[in-house]
Amino acid sequence: MNKTIIVSNRLPLQISIEQDQLNVTPSVGGLATGMKSVHADGNGLWVGWTGITDEELDADLKKEVDAKVKDVKCKAVGLTQDDIDQFYLGFSNRTLWPLFHYFLEYTEFEDSQWEAYKRVNQKFAEVVLDTIEDGDTVWIHDYQLLLLPQLIKDVKPEVTIGFFLHIPFPSYEIFRTFPWREELLTGMLGADLIGFHTYDYERHFLSSVKRILRLDVNFNEITYHDRIVKVDSFPMGIDYNKFHDAALEHDNPNTEISELQKRIDTHLNEDGDKKLILSIDRLDYTKGIPNRIRAFEYFLNKHPEYKEKVRLVMLAVPSRSGVPQYQLLKKETDELVGRINGEFSTVSWTPIWYFYRSLPFENLIDLYTSSDIALITPVRDGMNLVAKEYVATRTKQDGVLILSEMAGAAKEMNEALLINPNSFEDFASALKKALTMPLEEQNNRMKILQKRLKRYDVEKWADEFFKTLEATNKLQDVVVSK
Ligand code: GDG
Fold first, then answer.
1. Exposed end of the chain (fewer CB within 10 Å): N or C?
2. Rounded to the nearest whole angstrom, what is the distance from the C-alpha of residue 385 to the centroid of ligand 1?
3. Is ligand 1 within 6 A of the CB of residue 28?
4. d(CA 165, CA 169)
């Protein structure tokens, strides 16, 4: 029986070792939900890193990890601390991440890190090749594994390979600066289907393939050696029902009220017309956090009548703190929040509530359901699922989403207030518009957004990708038999 193998940098598991006791718990992120049906399928397997380096495991513990991981239909790729430093914190997050998000000034081109990237992609290939057979299907995820499709295809031409990129693919003018551009593109072209969140990323990729590799591109099909590689866009959805149902449960008077919710309620009750503006992101320079804080300051100065009437609740989730730019961003954010709170606070009001931590899912729902406005303003973002989650939790169809044009999600969310995240004027007028928007208009916009997100949820996304992958496979049969 043929099987499907999912490959991502991290396995959808949390593994911890406490007092020599090994605990393995599945993590319930969006990707794991989308992959559920594929993975749960009789012969599904997920390949990736466990989050524990080889150095942390002696032979016995490694055996135990492998066994427990196998129980949940996963297979571990062993990575050393040096791999993590060079491949993950290094090439993936200091080269590919900034370059693909148009942060050329942060992009490092280091030969040694490129070597590590190739070495680790090879490690992933070896684990996959160890279990794969002709007729199997592989679905590879994201920018850490761009070389993996070709590494598998070279050895096993009879397997079907799909690749999905979760971040933007930059324009040709940016991509051409990359020293190993041919290798990276040919690495991706090992796949039979390459998926992006938006049509723009797709067309940027096709343009680089045409101009750098000089290959024939016919609409969205690339002729590469004797194969056809299909390229398409699949905007990733969320687990809509999970968020919507959690919000309904939150509204249920019998549900226990969290400490966070009590604090929020106190704030709202102090003065009936206080409004909450929410922002949630990983603390990443692509998310536009300092600019958002400055724009909020600009708004308070431009519209002083909103002082003491609005509060920005900002959740910044710690991320990649081993990379210097992220440490600098943390410092900048702390200073900005401190300065603005120092400048504007009164005895009864702090303009910004700032949380630098990850919150449990229930608290995320507290924040989504309590906020009148979501202010999601990345300077560049592949998709942005937070924007979609906010919409899914608005069970009364009220609330306003202000969304950056630079997020992939903006392409499907025209009913949000779309802004250029570099314009303080755009911020201020969108905030004013959101704060004064009649309920009926909020309802009308929310209804359309919800309908769309409910229909195209994360399972549908995975389904569409898979169906297209299967069809691509049939297309190959036609090409081969011609
Ligand atoms: C990459 C791309 C693309 C956040 N804080 C907490 C928490 N979260 C959850 C959110 C959401 C997820 O994390 C963040 O997803 P995003 O899509 O917003 O952003 P990235 O992490 O940058 O993801 C992005 C995505 O991949 C998928 O392709 O959309 O463009 O950059 O689901 O809910 N969850 C919990 N506590 C938190 O404090 N439990």
1. C
2. 6
3. no
4. 8
Quick: pLDDT tens for 187-207. Answer: 999 999 999 999 999 999 999
Between CA 208 and CA 153 the distance in angstroms is 21
At position 433, the amino acid (one-letter code) is: K
d(C-alpha 349, C-alpha 223), whole Å: 62
Strand partners, 139: 6, 162
Token digits of residue 244: 């919507």
Q: Write the DSSP symbol of residue 372.
A: S
Q: Is the CB of 8 under 6 A from ligand 1?
A: no
Would the pTM count as exceeding 0.90? yes
pLDDT score at 477: 60
Residue 204 annotated in active site: no
Q: How confident is the model at residue 271 (pLDDT cuts 50, 70, 90)?
A: low
In whole angstroms, what is the distance from residue 297 CA to residue 300 CA?
5
Instruction: Identify the residue whose tokens are 């914190």.
Output: 89
Mean pLDDT of 395-418: 98
Q: Does residue 286's CB lie within 6 angstroms of at least one atom of ligand 1?
A: no
- Is residue 381 part of the annotated active site? The answer reads yes
Torsion angle of C-alpha atoms 267, 268, 273, 279, degrees rounded to 10:
80
User: Of 25 and 209, which is predicted with more confidence?
Assistant: 209
E strand segments, 264-327 = 275-282, 310-317
Contacts of 367 (CB under 8 A, 6+ apart): 260, 264, 278, 280, 313, 315, 359
Q: Catalytic pick from 192, 281, 372, 381?
A: 381
Amino acid at 146: L
Catalytic residue among 39, 141, 166, 244: 166
Closest to 55 in 3D by CA, of 77, 80, 84, 18:
80
Does any ligand 1 atom lie closer than 6 A to the CB of residue 198? no
Q: Report the half-sphere exposure of 479 (CA within 13 A, side-chain side).
A: 17
- Quick one: average pLDDT of 442-469? 96
Rounded to whole angstroms, the Cα distance separating 237 from 473 reads 24
pLDDT, one tens digit per residue, over 450-459 is 999 999 999 9
Cα–Cα dist 67/53, whole Å: 17
- Kindly report the three-state secondary structure assignment for every residue of 199-234: HHHHHHHHHHHHHHHCCEEECCEEEECCEEEEEEEC
Q: Is 400 within 8 Å of 434 (Cβ atoms)?
A: yes
Q: Please give the number of the atom of ligand 1 that sits closest to the Cα of 319.
A: 21
On whether the CB atoms of residues 394 and 450 are closer than 8 A, the answer is yes
Task: Write out the two tokens for 438.
Answer: 């009649």
Beta bridge partners of 290: none
Take residue 4 and report the two structure tokens written for it. 């499907």
